[in-house]
Amino acid sequence: LVNKVYLFRGVSHDLLFQLVSEMKAEYFPPREDVILQNEAPTDFYILVTGSVDLVDHKNGIEQIVREANPGELVGEIGVLCYRPQLFTIRTKKLCQLLRLNRNSFLSIIQSNVGDGTVIMNNLLQYLKEQKDHVMQGVLRETENMLARGRLDLPLTLCFAATRGDDLLLHQLLRRGLDPNESDNNGWSALVCNRSRHLSFCFFSSR
After folding, report:
1. Burial tier of 23 (Cβ tally within 10 Å: 0-12, 13-18, 19+)
2. Are residues 145 and 77 part of one domain?
């Protein structure tokens, strides 16, 4: 189940093993609020059985945005982008969910930088595929935070070079990342840079 979740597609088996070992199975009765809108992002969940509603509260009125079903994630955007949770997550029936704590998740990712890049790519692709204005706003904010190096996920220089993001490249180089270091596919930032015919003069200035 975990390897089929959109966020973890393409990550290493070692990372999946570490993540699964940190997940806690929890059960919630019908009409239970698992996550509250605007609360601090401490955990995210994979829905194993049952279904939940994503509920938006505006001016004292509740609106169901959509339903999430087994195999889907809830709460991950708040955790990854470190922003208040977007929606209240409310069970529709008895549900089993796998809970993953934010601190535990980030601790694992910090030692798996290549996988962190895969996860960020998966998140950005997911946000780009969403058509509603809320998710488009989240995408813009995430791209902005990414460029300023404000996200907690570890990223490779090749990720920044492939995106053509010179601001992010500057941020990562200042942290001491090696432009010759290879990612999970054996590509270095310099190779990624050349493959896209980009010209980042600060590579040669290091």
Report:
1. middle
2. no
Burial 113-124 (b: 16+ CB within 10 A, else e): bbbbbbbbbbbe
Smallest Cα–Cα separation from 48: which of 26, 66, 29, 65? 26
What CATH code is carried by the domain that includes residue 122? 1.25.40
Q: Residue 61 contacts by C-beta under 8 Å, 6 or more apart in sequence?
A: none
- pTM for the model stands at 0.74
Q: Which residue has 């339903």 as its token pair?
A: 67
Condensed to tens digits (0 to 9), the pLDDT of residues 56-69 reads 998 889 999 999 99
Identity of residue 80:
L
The predicted-structure confidence for 44-54, as pLDDT tens digits, reads as follows 999 999 999 99
Share of the chain above pLDDT 70, in %: 71
